[in-house]
Amino acid sequence: MRRAYRRRSDGAEVGRAHGSRLARRGPNLLIDGNPILVVWDEPMAGVGRPWFECPRCYRRCRDIYFRQLACRRCCRLDYASRHLHRQTPAVHRVERLRRKLGDCDVRPFAPLPERRPGRSKAYHEKLVAMVHAEEGKLLEHLGGIVHDLSRRIQVRKGRHQW
Ligand SMILES: [Zn+2]
Asked: Which of 43, 71, 69, 34 is nearest to 23 (CA)?
């Protein structure tokens, strides 16, 4: 999306992107002779928040990457967290809940510990119920994978490729 700037009578430039008002307050940056605009919005009245403006796509962004002087999207960069633990996301949730329980094996389906001294019974039972619910979802997910694999094996056997 390219943002159009309007020039106000007082000389300040104002643009609109994602429904928020952006006003240039400067100072902008100059990196190896390349100007990087700093644009501002006001998430709350009187509170300015600076952004860089990507020199390529003119989107506002938090970071500019140095090799190409462009934003994350233009450099085709991605966040590792979008890919880690993605194949079976329930495993990650189960491990996190089990760590909250404390003193237990964090792997799914391992035995659950007794209530920690000093912890309320209600909270312990709530965590245990959440662990069971997430493990149930995980089991369902894994069942789906097994079903899919069995189906693929049957198809391959039918084609004599197994
Ligand atoms: Zn960009």
From this structure: 43
Other CB atoms within a 10 A radius of the CB of residue 94 amount to 24
CA of 89 to the centre of ligand 1 (A): 30
What span, in angstroms and rounded, lies between the C-alpha atoms of 36 and 56?
10
pTM score, two decimals? Answer: 0.45
Please give all residues whose CB falls under 5 A of ion ligand 1, grouped by chain where several chains appear: 54, 56-57, 70-71, 74
Q: At what angle do helices 89-101 and 121-158 cross, to 10 degrees?
A: 160
Residue 43, preceding bond cis, omega within 30 degrees? no
Residues 6+ apart with CB under 8 A from 113: 101, 102, 103, 104
Determine the 3-state secondary structure of 26 from DSSP.
coil
**Residue pLDDT, tens place only, 31-90:** 878 888 999 999 999 888 999 999 889 999 998 887 778 888 888 888 877 776 666 768
